[in-house]
Amino acid sequence: MSFQPVLALGGLAGWGFLKRTMAVQQAAQQAVPANQRDEAYFRDRIGKIDTAEQLVADKRLLRIALTAFGLEADMNSGAFIRKVLTDGTLKDGTLSGKLANKQYQKLSAAFGFGDFSVPRTKLSDFPDKILAQYQARQFETAVGTQNNSFRLAMNAQRELPALAGQKISETAKWFTILGNPPLREVVQTALGLPRSFASIDIDQQVAVLQTRAEAAFGSEGVSQFAHPATLEALTQRFLTRSDSQTQGNASSPGAIALQLLRR
Hints:
The protein contains 14 helices and no strands. It is mainly alpha-helical.
């Protein structure tokens, strides 16, 4: 029997209920026999995996690994995932480094097949780290079947603080958000931008995000979302606007830019 989270309400009231009950609900999900079997299988087998080829060949392990990074849609893209893993992240020109979705880079770095002579699968705490991510993503997916806005909000509350703490420029952090569809949707919606915003010049997108962020939260940088209060303010703005966001009519990049400059 699959797990179904309890979502009493929508909107901010429902979000508050979900946050208050999240720990209990996550524990209930992890207690489902099928999930316990997956966890036991992963713990038993992952330490025996030496190469990317071995991981890709074991579909059960691969499903858990990909889900932990939000990449479960690539389950049938074995050759692509093997290339991502074997390239690693430390050399120039790696496949994951070229991809806009940096979850591939995180996946490759986490397993270390292409970066080290001994992969990270051999570390004693490796199963705990991957399974914690897998369980969090699983719960978000279950929530998303009933309320996708809550799923996006949960993802943002996990991913934004991690991005905020990275030692890269604020501009690079904004580009990372723009290259991550779930984060883009949360931030773009929270800042009152239409979906057609994505069609304007990428540098102008960053400039508009910085201006809107400063007006809404007091700073133009992504680093401010490391602070729980600011992150929660962003989340609540997203949830408040997500149901009422105007889809906008198709228009030229120039017209969209003019509209933004007038706001």
